[in-house]
Amino acid sequence: MEIFKYLEQYDYEQVVFCQDKQSGLKAIIAIHDTTLGPALGGTRMWTYASEEAAIEDALRLAKGMTYKNAAAGLNLGGGKTVIIGDPRKDKNEEMFRAFGRYIQGLNGRYITAEDVGTTVADMDLIHEETDYVTGISPAFGSSGNPSPVTAYGVYRGMKAAAKEAFGTDSLEGKTIAVQGVGNVAYNLCRHLHEEGAQLIVTDINKEAVQRAVEEFGAKAVEPDEIYSVDCDIYAPCALGAVINDETIPQIKAKVIAGAANNQLKDTKHGDIIHEMGIVYAPDYVINAGGVINVADELYGYNAERAMKKVETIYNNIEKVIEIAKRDGIPTYKAADRMAEERIERMRNSRSQFLQNGHHILSRR
Ligand SMILES: NC(=O)c1ccc[n+]([C@@H]2O[C@H](COP(=O)([O-])OP(=O)(O)OC[C@H]3O[C@@H](n4cnc5c(N)ncnc54)[C@H](O)[C@@H]3O)[C@@H](O)[C@H]2O)c1
Ligand SMILES: CC(C)C[C@H](N)C(=O)O
């Protein structure tokens, strides 16, 4: 990988490699764009096949956060961290504290939170070293685990997408195929079950599947069967790149709306599903509930205020669908347009320097 060429192509600002021999920390912090404010994005811990795969993931996810934060109307830029390692075996206190010191060294350019493989307890350890961390324990007056809030946002966004496809946003009686029933999707399934939807679920973790079967009367299928099941809505809530050349021909759903980041393997797959008439709720618009919730900590966390903002995901999905129709483009492009236009507007409106003692970083 020619790193600077890649950074230039997608206009990344900064990449930081963090190494701490004693704790085994190997982390990559990628900061994509700070036009709107400090870069906020979670920390993923994962066993990558190669260092290059880890760098690519950090970069791709950081850019996604720029778009997610912009589309959600947050005054935050985009960044992300990946820690190379197995979250079940390789974690220790020193690792997260060493990582916290690296974040502190960035002096507020990057603020972290949870992502796949990291937990509230990990954020609390980071918090021992820096204030530039969110998603920490409610005991600190903070918002805690963002997953249930992400799930609520996905539920609301799914309803907006359903309204476009079925003429009503009621999910009662709809069959919804949920791929992965982890932290977010378990809570999503609860909302869907309460509204009277029929659930089909899969996961590589059999216990997670069993819980959804017992609690929500879900029907279980094998992981590779989820794409082809008869359903109204397909909700990808596990991995990225699941909308691809192999899966698209199998999909029977009229709506794709789920929590996973980077669902389209390539942009061309967004074009294909658009041509098929599938209503696609762009991933970073529908799954912004978690980041909206943790970002509220920067103002002194208020759950009511945060949930009010999460509700706007319904309107944001409506807005994206409206732009897509107006401009005759797929929804993924409409979402990019919405985010890019906001960043551009803010960039242009900041032509004068004015010291601002009330900047969000001064309020903590
Ligand atoms: N947690 C959040 O607040 C949040 C916010 C925004 C986006 N997301 C994204 O949503 C997705 C889910 O996040 P999460 O926090 O629930 O993660 P999680 O790790 O708790 O859940 C993911 C689930 O997917 C399952 N899975 C993995 N590979 C699978 C496969 N091939 N087939 C079926 N199931 C498989 C895992 O066993 C796990 O149960 C991720 O892509 C994450 O990046 C999460
Ligand atoms: C809670 C958030 C800051 C990060 C979350 N994992 C996301 O992808 O949106």
Automatic annotation (TrEMBL):
Pathway this chain belongs to: Amino-acid degradation; L-leucine degradation; 4-methyl-2-oxopentanoate from L-leucine (dehydrogenase route): step 1/1
InterPro entries given in the database record: Aminoacid_DH-like_N_sf, Glu/Leu/Phe/Val/Trp_DH, Glu/Leu/Phe/Val/Trp_DH_C, Glu/Leu/Phe/Val/Trp_DH_dimer, Glu/Leu/Phe/Val_DH_AS, Glu/Phe/Leu/Val/Trp_DH_bac/arc, NAD(P)-bd_dom_sf
Enzyme class, broadest EC rank: oxidoreductase
Annotated coiled-coil segments of the chain: none
Record field: catalytic activity: L-leucine + NAD(+) + H2O = 4-methyl-2-oxopentanoate + NH4(+) + NADH + H(+)
Pfam families: ELFV_dehydrog (PF00208), ELFV_dehydrog_N (PF02812)
Domain Glutamate/phenylalanine/leucine/valine/L-tryptophan dehydrogenase C-terminal: 144-351
Domain of life: Bacteria
Gene3D superfamilies (alphabetical): Leucine Dehydrogenase, chain A, domain 1 (3.40.50.10860), NAD(P)-binding Rossmann-like Domain (3.40.50.720)
Keyword annotations: Branched-chain amino acid catabolism, NAD, Nucleotide-binding, Oxidoreductase
Protein name (record): Leucine dehydrogenase
Cross-referenced PROSITE patterns: GLFV_DEHYDROGENASE
GO BP, sorted A to Z: branched-chain amino acid catabolic process
